[in-house]
Amino acid sequence: MAAVTLITLTALATLAEPVVAFGTPYHHTYPTGYSNCSSSDLAQLALGKVLSDAAPVFGIYADVESSTSTWMREYADDTLIVHMNLPGTHDADTWNYSLTTQQSLDHVTGLANITEFDPAAYRCQDLSMVRMLDDGIRVFDLRYAFDVTNTTLVFWHGPGLVSETATVDDVLYGFYRWLDDHPSEALFLSFQYEGSTTPYGSNDAG
Ligand SMILES: *[C@@H]1O[C@H](CO)[C@@H](O)[C@H](O)[C@H]1NC(C)=O
Ligand SMILES: *[C@@H]1O[C@H](CO)[C@@H](O)[C@H](O)[C@H]1NC(C)=O
Ligand SMILES: *[C@@H]1O[C@H](CO)[C@@H](O)[C@H](O)[C@H]1NC(C)=O
Ligand SMILES: *[C@@H]1O[C@H](CO)[C@@H](O)[C@H](O)[C@H]1NC(C)=O
């Protein structure tokens, strides 16, 4: 069941035209003449950098083989999804949001004059997303919007910015890496535009 399903939700949380996409590996092809081992070293370095950028949202990557990290192995590929109970987590990306996180991002949120509340109000989980995957979670509620410079998509819980380095793309590399290491598993990722982030943020701005 090695597939990742992307479900796009609207700002109103209504299910609108779900997009289904299947995971592709992250391998790159290199131009002729650059096929030496240094290319794969560079690919490893690049992936390591992306996973490091993703860590504040995805967690620190480690390949864990356990009964919970491979539980779908027990089910035949033709098992209907409606016959399965898939555990999921709400606002999964907020697991490391604390006063320290909030204050460490003041120089970013300050650019848009954002005022947050008590950090405990934004944190909904305790374990990193990679730990959730290894523990058997297969459905993730992910909330994103533009960063304060309108250039990249990052994770928010209302005005609580979760990280400035972990972009949505970076975190997807984390999920794909995990799927490559756990080919028996399948995931549902729900991407929802998060409102009330920057004062000017709006859904039609991307
Ligand atoms: C490619 O790697 C081999 C063995 O590691 C080395 O001998 C060779 O010089 C390298 N070629 C280039 C173009 O770097
Ligand atoms: C979690 O937050 C703390 C405090 O901001 C930080 O030191 C730590 O690096 C964060 N963890 C990850 C994986 O980014
Ligand atoms: C933030 O507040 C300052 C001081 O009130 C103001 O000069 C500035 O234009 C505000 N910036 C934004 C992005 O709203
Ligand atoms: C981001 O876009 C909004 C809406 O178009 C605009 O008001 C705001 O100034 C932009 N922010 C930056 C940093 O360019």
UniProtKB/TrEMBL annotation:
GO molecular function: phosphoric diester hydrolase activity
PANTHER family: PLC-LIKE PHOSPHODIESTERASE, PTHR13593
InterPro entries, A to Z: PI-PLC_domain (IPR051057), PLC-like_Pdiesterase_TIM-brl (IPR017946)
Superkingdom, taxonomy of origin: Eukaryota
GO term, biological process aspect, one: lipid metabolic process
Residues in the signal sequence: 1-21
Protein name: Phosphatidylinositol-specific phospholipase C X domain-containing protein
Keywords: Signal
Native source organism of the sequence: Friedmanniomyces simplex
